[in-house]
Amino acid sequence: MQEKDIYRNILQQKGLKVTEVRMNALKILDDAEIPMTVEEVFNGLRSMLSTVNLSTVYRTMEAFLKKGLIEKTTLLDDNKFRYEYKRVEHKHHLVCIGCNRMVAIEDCPIDDNYAKAMCSRQGFELTGHRLEIYGLCPDCK
Length: 141
Prior knowledge:
Elements (H helix, E strand, L loop, with lengths): L2 H11 L6 H12 L6 H9 L7 H13 L3 E5 L6 E5 L6 E5 L5 E4 L6 H10 L10 E4 L6
Parallel strand pairs: 3-5
Antiparallel strand pairs: 1-2, 3-4
């Protein structure tokens, strides 16, 4: 199966209209090591599709969010929404408070039993978790 067919199938399964912008935006987010801003996705799309508009990318991100294809997050003191392809396995990140550089952490330090117990104590149902550890990168120290 070709790569485009994979993204086409994902969009169809979620009931979304299949367009070049959506297939390429999904690929960009899927290939990204760290969450991306709309502007970063837009710049990636511009290199593939010169006619794409920033407003189209915003609408695409909202459609992906509503269908559960991506996750939305913000960083401490960044005030920018960032989007990440929602995978079965999840990632956590180290974030530099100096330059906002992000590095993915491969291992998950949060045990499922711990997360379930934390939720249970407050009457929550566990649907997932995210961890961001803040510090200074080697360039900013």
